[in-house]
Hints:
CATH architecture of the largest domain: 3-Layer(aba) Sandwich
Subcellular location: Endoplasmic reticulum; Golgi apparatus; Lysosome; Secreted
GO biological process, one term: proteolysis
Protein name: Carboxypeptidase Q
Strand order of the largest sheet: 3-2-9-5-6-7-8-4
Keywords: Aminopeptidase, Carboxypeptidase, Endoplasmic reticulum, Glycoprotein, Golgi apparatus, Hydrolase, Lysosome, Metal-binding, Metalloprotease, Protease, Secreted, Signal, Zinc, Zymogen
Amino acid sequence: xxxxxxxxxxxxxxxxxxxxxxxxxxxxxxxxxxxxxxxxxxxxxxxxxxxxxxxxxxxxxxxxxxxxxxxxxxxxxxxxxxxxxxxxxxxxxxxxxxxxxxxxxxxxxxxxxxxxxxxxxxxxxxxxxxxxxxxxxxxxxxxxxxxxxxxxxxxxxxxxxxxxxxxxxxxxxxxxxxxxxxxxxxxxxxxxxxxxxxxxxxxxxxxxxxxxxxxxxxxxxxxxxxxxxxxxxxxxxxxxxxxxxxxxxxxxxxxxxxxxxxxxxxxxxxxxxxxxxxxxxxxxxxxxxxxxxxxxxxxxxxxxxxxxxxxxxxxxxxxxxxxxxxxxxxxxxxxxxxxxxxxxxxxxxxxxxxxxxxxxxxxxxxxxxxxxxxxxxxxxxxxxxxxxxxxxxxxxxxxxxxxxxxxxxxxxxxxxxxxxxxxxxxxxxxxxxxxxxxxxxxxxxxxxxxxxxxxxxxxxxxxxxxxxxxxxxxxxxxxxxxxx
Length: 484
């Protein structure tokens, strides 16, 4: 791991060329201070703190599914890290679900046409288990939720395979509903089990897990994701006639347990009650070590707090960092924060969530009222050397900050090149070696700078219109941001 990253000559040129703060009162400031830009962006690029901290979280602690010992260790690690940085930190209680994967296996049973094949699979988060002896049934393949209903009686007693053609990150939103709702739709039609092709853009026969949910008033059947290769195998075999599979899933849901959101802040010098929220989720799935999802986001916002905490004077407004609990399988941390801070959400002037991986930054997205882009754009010049100095089309958002939608909190996003995010997303392959230190440093620099801009710019972002509907009820309903 490199201990430092070179600060480009182009960036230094832009920093020194940026307009200096004029002599009049702060309200007249129309651009950033090049000295502050150099201290924030330059430090993020050269000091290597983000990658070193990501190594501590991923290699040192590992998987962090809600309610596990790994999650508890991560909470204490984050608290100690903020304290070591001299940043004020506290813990806010959250009740989180406790789902246990257990042992799992699957196989295609041999027939006159083919020999037995093992299946590479993972239970979906929240699934019930199979009977101890396993579940054996014929497979029926579908491509949509609607197709299940159209098949009628043909689904009864079968394991429904939801196949799809996800190939690029932008396809994730189209396929996510199959994983999330497929089991309930299949169960209501009489199916006894559900499989879904992994939502992935690359695979070496590695299944990708993820959240699913059951309808409260419907039957519950075991549900798992199979690797892309095995979904293709089943598709080929089914073309020649009936196919039976055996599934054994040892998963179960235990009573909810206590956890915490980790909250830290750098108090503002002039308007401390006005809050700029920088968020990421501390939990991960129980497979891999959550390096891109969402260890990268965690260390980005932590590093932003460390660097902003060293500024003298501090930014005009308070910058609050929240490491949310339970984004992956319940969104309890995001909801708990919104409830605990309901009385001050009117003073939340912006919220930014990083949960698209530790990739190269591309620019800034906004969800704000008219005039928001004009307020922020002049302050983004120092990010031009990183290729991230422009306002991009499309809304900003995030699962953990979605409960802030009814309060009309403006959302800001540092968009990254997440085109390869779903190569490893929710799989055993989401490990530190997949994160490029240079890309992570650049994204961290962008987050630190945007956090500073939101806290220092004289005006605040206009609040957006009220949302047309209530916030999503689960993280699965709010897919991770796809590639721009």
